[in-house]
Amino acid sequence: MAAAIATGDVAGLEALLASDPEALERRRADGTTLLHQAAHAGQIGVIDLLLDAGLDPEIESEWGHTAFEWAANMSQREAALHLRSRGAGRADLWLAAALGLLDEVESYFDDGRLRAGAGRSPRSGARLDGWPEDGAFRSGDAVSDALYIACRNGHLQVARFLRARGADVGAVGYFGARAIHWAAGGGHGEVVDWLIAEGADPDERDPKFGGTAAGWAREFGHAALAERLEDRIGPGRDDDHEGEV
Question: pTM of the prediction?
Answer without folding.
Answer: 0.91
